[in-house]
Write the structure tokens for this entry.
Amino acid sequence: MRILVLGSGAREHAILDALLADPAGHDVTVSPGNGGIAEASATVVFGDITDDELVADWVQANPFDLVVIGPEAPLIAGVADGLRERGVPVFGPGRAAAQLEGSKAFAKRIMAEAGVPTGRAVRAGTLTEVEAALDELGAPYVVKADGLAAGKGVLVTDDRAAALDHATHYLQQGAVLLEEHLTGREVSLFFLSDGHTVLPLSPAQDFKRLGDGDAGPNTGGMGAYSPLPWLADSFGGEEAFVRRVLETVAEPVVRQLEDEDTPFIGLLYCGLIVEGDDIRVIEFNARFGDPETQVVLPRLVTPLAGLLFAAASGELAGMPWPEFSDQAAVGVVLASEGYPEAPVTGRPIYGFRDALTVPGIRIDHAATAWSDEHDTLLATGGRVLTVVAVADDFREARSRVYAAVDALDLEGGQYRTDIAAAVVAE
Ligand code: AMP
Ligand code: GLY
């Protein structure tokens, strides 16, 4: 198949690797890609990938069998709609269904209509409404920007003044949501949807805080691992857990959007919180998660291209659940100094060759670009790359991933040292 992947992150790099691993052989182009992606595949820059008309025109002139949209911004901008109108099979929801990610208030409404378990939330448009909601819900306070905020829109705090400050900031951009504080372990579970039929992938856990022990600010995600052995404690195993989320969350949401004539075709990311055998939704995203994708796709045995094409073409009905290996995957994000507030960019990264000699390692690039001057890649943004190790168990996967991370040299680089540490200790 000729496949176009839109995006430039480590997630798109992982999608690319999974597509290229298919023995059927695919011709994959990524736009715009990044320095690491360019070493693995064709990249092309034709302009702003959130411009729906521009993308549709370019794809019409350069035909593909399948277009996979990686990030949320083009989805929320309606790029999938523009392509579908021209008959192009596309993996990614249209503008309306992508509101599941684009507006937390929309997601709450869909969950209410579909009877999906989630925390209580109050939408507030003024500071007076915020204060009333904080009093009603009590501490710890959970304050969320209604729209997209690149992982930075959520504040969880006991400090009422800090909650009010955060709300005041995001009220300038629209409404905020005050939410009941949920406790438990977080799980990210992805589903492929063709608008009606839903198939699950394998669960992962993301580490959203910047520092070890969940200290520091929320980020886009600093690491992940998959599968989650501890799901066996309350659910008897992964399959029973996944089936329950399929039946109580993913299917009801996809059917609700279908009933509203805004079908969800693409990847439904369910951000869940699990306590005992209670499962509640924290958030939805309308695309593959980052960095979870980097640890989920290396375990996928079923060829990815066939799954994405079937979802894009309304053909998931009757297909078996995708298969995954039992291997352990651990991913660690390397971020620039100053991330998330003010990343320092333009610094060279050394040590790729040594890192890649560690067995079972892959490196998914995010913000990298080649520099002739330094004869290596430069870090060009906050989250620079994800190092991923696959091994027979988590102890080995952790030891491999950190051997490779330690081999990389980025001045001021930040990473967490405790990714999947609890799983090894349990
Ligand atoms: P979100 O962007 O909605 O995924 O939120 C980012 C992070 O904030 C989540 O991964 C949680 O760690 C935390 N969080 C969000 N909502 C809640 C909640 N209702 N209760 C507790 N923690 C939350
Ligand atoms: N890992 C969180 C996200 O992709 O939004």
